[in-house]
């Protein structure tokens, strides 16, 4: 598996989490009031928050460069014509220069050095 394939796979997963959070949130917002504050859909807002938390926690590990270990989250999640893949023009890690189309054979080495962790 190439680095790009892993990033694309993780991006699809993240978008599914976002979609689930939005669906659950809207279900809670629109169905909750119809059924009263203590209706079965009112707790869905909490579930939506849980999905958002899952996205946040997952993003910290899902979008790391496999060579340098730096976070690529914002780059990977930026707007693209195809929502489910990373921008095709992104070819190299901006931190270490590894080619995203190379196979993932290298280990992360600088995770401990990342001050943003
Ligand atoms: Zn890198």
How is this structure best described in words?
By secondary structure, the protein is mainly α. The protein is built from three helices and no strands. It has one domain. It has helices at residues 3-34, 44-62, 73-76. Helix 1 (3-34) runs antiparallel to helix 2. The longest helix is centred in the N-terminal third of the chain and has 32 residues, at 3-34. It starts with a helix and ends in a 41-residue tail after the last helix. The mean pLDDT is 80. The structure holds zinc ion (ZN).
How is the secondary structure organized here?
Layout: H1 3-34, H2 44-62, H3 73-76
Helix pairs in contact: 1-2
What is the total number of structural domains?
Answer: 1
Q: How can the largest sheet be summarized?
A: none
Shape: elongated
Gap between N and C termini: 26 Å
What is the overall pLDDT average? Answer: 80
Low-confidence stretches: none
Structural class: mainly alpha
Discrete helix count: 3
Q: Order of helices and strands, N to C? A: HHH
What brief labels describe this structure?
117 residues, mainly alpha, binds zinc ion
Summarize the structure.
This protein is an all-alpha fold and 117 residues long. 47% of the residues lie in helices and 0% in strands. The chain has 3 helices and no strands.
């Amino acid at each position: 598996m190439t680095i790009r394939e892993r990033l694309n796979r993780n991006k699809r997963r993240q978008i599914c989490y976002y979609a689930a959070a939005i669906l659950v949130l809207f279900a809670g917002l629109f169905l909750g009031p119809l059924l009263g504050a203590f209706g079965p859909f009112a707790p869905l807002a909490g579930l939506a928050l849980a999905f958002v938390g899952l996205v946040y926690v997952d993003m910290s590990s899902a979008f790391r460069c496999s060579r340098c270990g730096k976070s690529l989250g914002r780059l990977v999640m930026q707007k693209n014509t195809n929502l489910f893949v990373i921008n095709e023009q992104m070819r190299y890690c901006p931190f270490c220069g590894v080619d995203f189309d190379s196979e993932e054979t290298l280990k992360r080495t600088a995770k401990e050095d990342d001050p943003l962790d």
